[in-house]
Each structure stands twice: as structure tokens, then as C-alpha cells.
Amino acid sequence: MVDIKVKPRPIGATATVGRHGHPQVTSETGGGLAIVTGASEPGFNPLDLMFSSLAACLVLSARIAAGRLQLLDRLVEVRVHVTGEKAKSEPTRIEEFTIDFAIYGDFGVDEKMQIIRLAEEICTVGNTLKGSPSFEVRTA
């Protein structure tokens, strides 16, 4: 029997902002991203990052799902578009997510729905957003 050791990927992010300028976000692995704040400014704002995280998690989970369902050899591409509606009352939040899946390959509707349902079960980001995670807030 082969003992497979999986090295866990460090997770987390740090955001910084000064008195002026845009926030900068750095991942635990050293990736960086400038955050935009203007309504028409190209780039990612905090809500875009949340939608992007869900979309990325779902496409990766759909690929995993296709593999588990032994359909991966027919998968050409998965696209997920995520957007949402902000709540009209306090506290400010996204009240409803809209998720559009496009699965390309030689699949019928039932197989696509199997992939989507399993992807939703696998997706850590989606499972977190559907739940009620606790927050531990600390200060330095």
C-alpha cells in the first residue's frame, strides 16, 4: 500500500491600506492583488473577490465531480458566473447569490446536473457561505 502525503496549502490573506490609496491584499503564499474602490475602475473589489472565490471553487469542484462520476474524459470546460443581490436592509450583505453553470462536453442535461449537485457538495467556499461560520476577531 502506498502512503500518500499531501502537503496542506497555507490559507489566509492580509489586507493593508494607508491613509490614501487602494488596499493591497497578500495571500499566505505571497500572491498579491491591488483592490479597487471606484465603481467603474477595472479590477477586483471585495465583493468581486467573494464572487470570484465562489466561482473558482465551483469550477474546480465541478472538475473533481466529473472525475468522481467517471465523466472527466468527456469534460471540455466548465464556466461559472457568480453575482448577487445586496440586501436592502442592514446589515449590509449579499442576500442572494446567482450562479450560472456552463458545462461543455458530451453530456446530457442529467449528467450536467449530477456534476453541478456534486460540485456544490464539494465546494468549500459555497459550503462556508451557506453555513454560519464563527468569527474570532483579535487585535495586535
Automatic annotation (TrEMBL):
Q: What InterPro entries does this protein map onto? A: KH_dom-like_a/b (IPR015946), OsmC/Ohr_fam (IPR003718), OsmC/Ohrsf (IPR036102)
SUPFAM superfamilies with a match to the protein in the record:
OsmC-like (SSF82784)
Protein name (Swiss-Prot/TrEMBL): OsmC family protein
Its source organism is: Neorhizobium turbinariae
List the taxonomic lineage.
Bacteria, Pseudomonadati, Pseudomonadota, Alphaproteobacteria, Hyphomicrobiales
